[in-house]
Every structure is written in structure tokens, then in C-alpha cells.
Amino acid sequence: MYKVFIDTNNIIKFSKTFDSGILAELRHYCREGIIDFLTTDIIISELKKNKRKPILDDVNKFISAKQTLSNKYSIVFSDIKSNYELADPILSSLYSKIDTFFKECGSNKLSLKKLCLDKILDDYINEVPPFTKGKPYEFKDAINIQLIKSHQKQIDEMIHVISEDEGFCEAFNDIDKFKVHNNLFDFIKIVRMDNLPCVQSLALLEKYLQDEDFKKSIITGLVETVSYSISLDIFDDAEILEISDVKVNNIEFSIDGETDDLLKSGDLYISYSIEVFYEYFDPYSSPYDSETKSFVYHNIIKNTSRFDVDLVVPFVLEFEKKAPFDESKPLSQLTDLIHVDVNFAKSEVLLTDYDAYCI
């Protein structure tokens, strides 16, 4: 059985849905007794906190928009609730999904009762990772690290640690029976290779994904098929008129799915940055005639921004020849036997302040 601890960011990245994709595969392996999913109350709380802020922001915008319409046009909305009255049922539903995911995974929650505060304070004083000069107050990470190390001493087995945080990873460097991965894919790939019935088709697919022509086809789909819209706090009352000149950079992708001898289907996870040119009508800088109650003219502002995007799209892999291929041949000679169909239809991306960089 694989024992794994997953840092918060690696769960957040794929937590748009728990019912498909790599988190669903993780849950499957947990249910099958293949993975022992180690976690803490801190991880679950941080995940809920991350989900809470954008929901509260959206609720604030919704209520503010109703109040603005009410004041501007003398409209009475009888159902205007307080922010928390509106947000509470949404948050409760989301928190329930998070709790259900960890419960269905049979997650092994490491008890805070086993915490040794003296060791954490000693690491803090001596700047032992995760306490570094750049991040001197990483007490939440320090608690998780200490609980993981304590658990490993108790069971004396290999623990896989998944984290993108450099200081967190450094805390396990050169320590026997710890294997550090920077992303969930690297770990799941190891589990698949030991448990999937058709390892060769998976390796063949991964080789296919490295092809430049496939990368170009993905970029074409991201530019020409995916629908983009923009919602930025700094232009709260502005109307986005047009998005154009979409450019994709820094693209990376990986796969998830189930395989058999002739077909593989699943999800393609795509991370990329995107530059877009857009025009918007700015009411604040447009002169307004109070007598006619209309703008004298519309001030159209042009801007270019870069956004970081994570997108999940379904794919299907098919062998061109419905017959076993010669596994003795190098993978590079077998990729002509397969075709990967990536479906970008109905893919919509909302570009927001959380992912924006002004250019």
C-alpha cells in the first residue's frame, strides 16, 4: 500500500470537481486499498478557506449589483439578503463535498495530539525548513511536517510527500523512507504503472503527448475553440466589449483516465498562460449628461493582460489498427498507430483577478 501526504495546493489545483479527473482516480485507489491517504485538520481547513474567499467575493458583487440597481432605478428587491445569509448555504454545500471526498477516500487524519511543539519552536529559532528567510512564519507547514515525520517513525514505511512548496519539500530532503514529488501526477503515474493492466498503452500515450504536432493542435484548440470571458474587480462596473489576439504560452499538460487494450479515455489537464487584448467601456471616465440621462460618448479603453489558466478537457485515445501492436518496437515507432481526440467543445474559461498579470 502506498502512503501519501498531499499538500493543500496540489488538492486545490484539481478541486473544481471531486467526481472526475485525478482526484476521482485518487479516491478509487484509496477505496481499493492501494493508497493510504494521510492528511490533517490543517489541510482540510486550508482547502475550505481557499474555496470560501471567491464565493464571498461573488456574493458581495451580486448583492452590490442589486443594491445599485435598486438605488439607480428605484426598484425594490424584497429578497435582498445579507451577505452571510446568501453565502452560508453555498458554503455549507461546498464544505460538505470536501468532507465527503476525504471520507470516501478513507483519509487517515494524523492527530494533533501527537504534536511536539518544542521541536517546532526549535526549528523556528534555527530556521530549519519550512522556516526560511523568505517564509519565516510557516507554522502550519511545520505542524504538518512534524506530524508526517512522527507517523513515519511509528509505521517505519515509505511515505510519499506531494508539495510544490520548496521549503516544505526541503524538510524531507535526504531523509530515508520519504519520497518527494512536486505534483500529484508524478505520484499517480507510479501507482498506475503498478496497477493498470495495459502499461504499454499508457506509456505510448505519454510519448504521443510529447509530439510537437500534438502540442500545436492543443494550442489551436485553446485559441480557436475555447470561449474566454473576463471579470476583473478593477473594472467592476465596466463592460467588456471585445476579446481578441489570444496568445498561448508556457503550456504544460498531463493525463488522467482508465485504459484497456484498445482504448484509453480520460481527462487532459492543461496549464498555460494566455495573453489577451480586450476593450471595455469605462463609465467613470465617460462624460454623463444628467438631463438626458445618457453618456455624451463612451470612453473605450484598450488593454492587454496575461492570465494563468488551468483547464480540464476530455480526450479519447484509439488505436488505428484494432490488433495488438509489436511491443518489442520503440515507442517512437508505435505512435503512428494511435490517434488522440481532444474535445474542446463547450469549454469556457473565466479570466479573473486571481490569475491576472498586467502587461
Q: Helix and strand layout, with pairings?
A:
Elements: E1 2-6, H1 8-12, H2 22-31, E2 35-39, H3 41-73, H4 83-104, E3 108-109, H5 117-125, H6 139-155, E4 159-162, H7 166-170, E5 178-181, H8 184-195, H9 199-209, H10 212-224, E6 227-231, E7 239-259, E8 263-281, E9 288-289, E10 294-295, E11 300-319, E12 338-342, E13 348-352, E14 356-358
Parallel strand pairs: 1-2, 1-4, 2-3, 4-5, 6-13
Antiparallel strand pairs: 7-8, 8-11, 9-10, 11-12, 11-14
Q: Mean pLDDT score, rounded? A: 77
The biggest beta sheet is recorded as: 5 strands, parallel
- Determine Rg (CA atoms, Å): 25 Å
Instruction: Work out the helicity level.
Output: 25-40%
| Largest beta sheet: strand ordering | 3-2-1-4-5
Quaternary structure annotation: single chain
| Strand element count | 14
The helix-and-strand class reads: alpha/beta
Report the β-strand fraction as a percent range: 25-35%
Anisotropy-based shape: globular
Describe the structure.
By secondary structure, the chain is an alpha/beta fold. 38% of the residues lie in helices and 28% in strands. Helix 7 links the parallel strand 4 and strand 5. The longest helix has 33 residues.
Q: Brief description of this entry?
A:
The protein is an alpha/beta fold and 359 residues long.
